[in-house]
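ugh ok so i messed up the first submission bc i forgot one of the chains. this is the corrected input, ALL of the components this time, i swear. 839 residues overall. if the numbers dont match what u have on ur side tell me asap before i send this to the collaborators (the ones from the other lab, u know who)
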Amino acid sequence: MLAVPEMVEKLRDRIRSEKKSRRGPGEAVLSTGWPPLDELLPGGGLRRGTLVEWLAAGPGSGAAVLAWKAAQQAAQEGGAIVVLDRRREVYPPALAAWGVDLERVIFVQPQNARDEGWAWDQALRCPGVAAVWGWLDQADGQLFRRWQLSVETSGGVGLLVRSGDARTQPTWADVRWWVEPQGAATGRRMRVELLRCRGAGGSGSVELVLDEWTGQLCDPNPKMGLAAKIGTGTDRPDRSQSHCRSPLEEEQRYVTHPRPLAAQLARATARPRATGTGPLRHRAV
Amino acid sequence: MQRLVREQPELARCAIVLYEQNARYGQRVKTCSAAAWEQSVRPGMPLAEAQTLLAEPEKAVCPLFACHDAGRDREALLELAEWCEQFSPIVGLDQADEPDSLLLDVSGLAHLFGGEEALAQTVVAACRQQGLTARVAIADTAGAAWGFARWSESSRHAPCAARQRGRTHRESSVPPSPESVTAADGTRSVPATFVERVTAADGTRSVPATMVVLPPGDATVLDRLPVEALRLPQRPTEQLQRLGIRQIGQLSRLPRASLAARFGELLIERLDKLAGAVAEPIVAHHAREPLSVRWCFEHPTTHPEAIEHVLGELLSQLSRRLIEQGHGVLRLTCQLVCPNRQPLKIDISLFRPTVAPQHLLALAKLQLALVSLPDAVEEIRVRALATGPREQRQGELFGEAPREHPAQLALLVERLSNRLGREHVVRAELQAEPQAERAYRYRPLAGEAATSSSPAQPPTPLPGPLLRPLRLFDPPQPIDVVGIALDGPPAMFHYQRRRHRVARCFGPERIETGWWRGESSRRDYYRVETEAGSRWWLFRRLQDQRWFVQGTFE
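and heres the new structure output, hopefully the right one now
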C-alpha cells in the first residue's frame, strides 16, 4: 500500500505521460519568436496544430505585434501566412517591416461574421498554410471547436488576436496570452501573462521591452544605464546593435527638428548603412 | 475616351481629362475631350493645372479625371476589330505600342459595297450608329491610308491640327491591300487601302468624321502629307520640323543615304512603306472562338440534383475542349436561365488554370448553396471568360519543402475567392508612396494570369517595425486634442468618448506629398504612448491644424 503523497505523485506522472502521448512524441515545437515567452511554455514553445489566443488589454497594446512575430516564425519552414482582416484595417507595410515577404501572405477580407468563421475554418484546414493570423471579435464555442479540429488536421498554427473582453469566455485555444501595455521610460514595454496553457495548468508572466527602432528585445531591467541587448537576433543582424537610447533624448531631438520625410530618405541613402537603424537616425549628428 | 463615353453615355457632354502617370513628370494630361479643350486644357500639361482650369465654378462643366488605361483601350479596339470584320476578312491593329487604329484589307471588296466611296460611307455610318466617330481613308498602302486618315486636307479644316492630336484614342482602321499594290503587273484593279479613324465620341462638337478615298496609283498626293503622317517616334519628327521639313514631298527630294544617317533607318523604311516599295502586311486579328457550352432542358426543372448533374456534364465538355488547346480556365461564368427572369449568374475565378471538372463543379456548388433559384431552370450556359496555358507539373523526386503545398494552397485561394469574392482574397504590394494610406495596394489572387510581374523589393527602405502601426484607419478619424504649445505635440486626446493622456510622444515626423500630384497632403505624425501604455499614431493636418488618429500600434 502506497502512501497517499506517493500515490498522488504516481497518478500525476501517469497523467503527464498520457498527455504527452496524445500530443505525439517527437513533435517539433515552434518558437513564438520571443524567448521569454517560450520559457513560460512547457516544451519551450508552441505546438503545431493548435490555436493560440492573444488577448489585448486595450487598443494599441502590442498583442498583434507579438502574434505576428510568431506567425513569421511558423512560416520559416515554408508555407503561407493567411491574414484574416474583416475590418480591412491591417496595414501591410507594417507587416512587411518585420521582414516578411508579402508574396507569401494572403489577405482575406470577409464581409460578414458568417463568412469570417468559414474563412478561418478553411484557412486553418489547409496544409499549405503555416499560420493564420487575424483579429477576432466574437466566436461561438461550436465554431471554435471546429477550428481547433481543423488546425489539428493541417498542422498549422492559428493566432487569434482578441480584445480583453474574451478573457472571461471559454476557449478551445491551447494557449492564451494576456498582453497589457506598460508605461515605460525606455522602449516599448508590455507585460505578457500566460493565462492558460493546455497540459501545464499554466501561469506566470513576463515583462518584455522592445527596442523603439529595431523591434528587438531589450533587457527589461538595464543594469548599467545602457540597456544591453538580449534579442533574438535571428533577422536583421545589422540592425541589432543595441540602440536603447533614452526616449527623452530622442523626443527632444525630433520635437525640435521637424523635417520632411522625403528629405530624410534622400539623405539616408547617402549614409553608410551600418551606422544607423532607421531613416531618422542621422538627426543625431 | 470613346470607350468611356460608350460605357457611360451621360458623360458625352462632360469635360473628360485622361491623364497618365509619368515617372519623371508626375501626372500629365494625355488627352482631353472637346469640352475640356474649350477650357484650354491641353495634352502634356500637369494634371493639377488642368484641374485648376476646370475647377472654376462659373464654367458649368462637370469635369471627369480618369487615368489613361492603355490595356482597356486595347481591349476596346480589339472588340471593334472583331466588329469590323463585317467589312473585310482581314482586320488588324496598327503595329504601335499603343495601337489606336484599325487596318482593313479591302482589296477586291469595294464592288460589294458599290465602290470605294460607298464603302467608306458605309463604314462611317455604321460607326456612327455605334456611337463612334470614324475617320476613314482608302489608299494604296497601309502607311498612306494611316496618314490620310489622320492628316488629310479635310481634317486640317477642323479647328486646329493640334486639337485632333489631343483627341483620345483614335481608332482607325487601315486595310490596305498591299498584295494588289506590290503585284505591280499593271492589272491592279482595286485601289485598295482604307483607313478608318475614330475620334472623339460626341460627334456633334468634335472633329467631324472624315472620309478620304485616294485614286489608285497617284503618288503625288502623298507629297502633301505632313511628316507626322510617317508614324515616326516623337524625336525624329521634331528634328525634321526644326529643320523646316514639314511635308513628305520635301523629304523625298533629299538624298536617302544622308536621311538614314541622320534620322535612322526607320524613316527610310516608313517612306518605302508609304510609297508601296516595301510591302506592309496587315497582321490580322481574329477573335478566339468563345469557349461556351449550353444545355437546354426539355422541361424547366427545379431539381438541384438535375441542375448539378447537367452543370457537371457541361463543365467536363468545356474541360475536354480546353485540354485540346492545352489551356486551363481562369475565370468562367455559368448562367442558369429561367423563363421571364434575369438569368442567375455564377462566376468562378481560379488561382491557376484548371481543367478538372470536379473541382470546378465543387466551386460552383459552393455558390449555388448560397443562392436560391428564382424559378425553374430551362437552360444552363457555361462560358470560359479567361483562360491561360496550363503548367505541366512533374512529381518531384525528393518531395518538396516540408510545409509547402502549392496545390493545396491554390485550392484554398480558389475556395475563398469564390465564396467571398475575388476582390476580397488578395495579396498586398508595397508602393513607393510616402503617404501612409497609399503605401500599399491590394491585388486579387484568383482569376489573374500569373504573368503579372511583381516588384519584389519595396522601392523605399522600410521604416523600423515599430514605427508604423499594424492597424490603420483609412480614412483617418478626426479627434480632439489638447496640446500645450499650439504647434507642439499632443498632451491629451479624446477618441471614441474616452480620454487618453499622453505620457510620451515621438515626433513629429513630417510626411507630405508633392503639390504636383494633385491633392496634396501635409501632415506631422506623432507616435504617442498614453499613460496606460497603449500606442497611437496621430497626426496634425498642417493645412488646418486639425488632429486625426491614423492607426494604433496593436
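quick check: Chain A touches chain B through 80 residues (CB under 8 Å). that seems consistent at least. Helices of chain A lie at 4-23, 35-40, 63-74, 92-96, 113-125, 141-154, 247-256, 261-268.
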